[in-house]
Amino acid sequence: DLQLSDRVQQIKPSPTLAVTNRAAVLRAEGKDIIGLGAGEPDFDTPEHIKKAAIDAINNGFTKYTAVDGTPGLKQAIIGKFKNDNNLTYAPNQILVSCGGKQSFFNLSLAYLNPGDEVVIPAPYWVSYPDMVIVAGAVPVFIDTDMSTRFKITPEQLEAVITDKTRLVVLNSPSNPSGVAYNLEELAALGEVLRKYPNVLIASDDMYEHIIWSEGGFCNILNACPDLYDRTIVLNGVSKAYSMTGWRIGYAAGPVKLINAMKNIQSQSTSNPTSVSQVAAEAALKGGKECMVPMLAAFKERHDWLTAALNELPGVECVSGDGAFYAYPCFKGAMAAMGIEDDVVFAEKMLLEAGVAMVPGSAFGTPGYMRLSYATSLDVLKAAVERLKAALA
Ligand code: PLP
């Protein structure tokens, strides 16, 4: 029998990708399935971005690049941080990777030792705990629920920090809750973090541009500029520019850390795809007009879906600030059917309603369901009709 590493046996395949696959299998069997599992925008990559990549291919820009990214893309990222976030970075503080996922993976492997603790607020992006575990470290969760709109409080943060804590992960707007922190809330969390100088902060800003809350986007460094030396900012073009398949993410932070992450990357993937880097540079330099229609569509769907979910019996949904996920509580509906396990419930909805949702237990908060609204309003309306019938 083939013996696998202890490491790989501690992690699971991404549950969100699993739901998408399960829906695809049922569809192939001829079942009519509405998939609300996807974590990617339903729009095409904007034309000027695609054109830049096509030109790059035609111009022969098809070889290895610098491991940490082309100088042109790094300059575009530096400009983006300056203009959008009022943050200043030098080129040696930037690492471009094969998607935001690799950025966090590099961080985990370059920074964490076995036994180190990583604070992760739940609900969380499914990949954080598993990447931390691959590095031998220990995820420590802070539970939240809809009563605080899934935001952690300074008291909760303080209560989980120990002398083993090395990293705190913040993700705003959040996948899966869609909720964003405002400046005051981040300042209050920063006040706690300030007391623990050995703790690094990872700010995952992947959904920065998909936001409609009052005050707009901000991150912990906007609230607490003094934490600059121990914060790593993670971002990418995947969600903002509908570029999930191009696989470009980036990290910005302390030189020593970025260098270590670059070493990990140089011994795994080397540079991210040359052509994709040209596309990402065009995206970051090309202005934000292309985001406007996408943002408007997400907002319209958010408003409609949140209201419609709240009409369903036993379902409650808080309003989100951004991203493209609704994260309603189905505990009432589950209880009415005598179901305790949200994975069982999600499977029942998949088979009986033909609607694929990701159960909240995948994100560390059982009893909720994540519905992606990166799909048309008509599809969302059909999905809600089906859920209504199945719950009646
Ligand atoms: N961070 C969050 C919160 C995400 O939801 C995702 C994608 O789902 C990523 C990072 C990584 O994005 P990618 O690797 O596609 O660039």
UniProtKB/TrEMBL annotation:
GO BP term (any one): amino acid metabolic process
E.C. code: 2.6.1.-
MF (Gene Ontology): pyridoxal phosphate binding; transaminase activity
Pfam families: Aminotran_1_2
InterPro entries recorded: Aminotransferase_I/II_large, AspAT/PAT-like, NHTrfase_class1_PyrdxlP-BS, PyrdxlP-dep_Trfase, PyrdxlP-dep_Trfase_major, PyrdxlP-dep_Trfase_small
Keyword Transferase among record annotations: yes
Keywords: Aminotransferase, Pyridoxal phosphate, Transferase
Cofactor dependency: pyridoxal 5'-phosphate
Aminotransferase class I/classII large domain sequence ranges: 31-387
Gene3D superfamilies named in the record: Aspartate Aminotransferase, domain 1, Type I PLP-dependent aspartate aminotransferase-like (Major domain)
Family statement drawn from the similarity comment of this UniProt entry: Belongs to the class-I pyridoxal-phosphate-dependent aminotransferase family.
PANTHER family, A to Z: ASPARTATE AMINOTRANSFERASE
Name of the protein this chain belongs to: Aminotransferase
Organism of this sequence: Parathalassolituus penaei
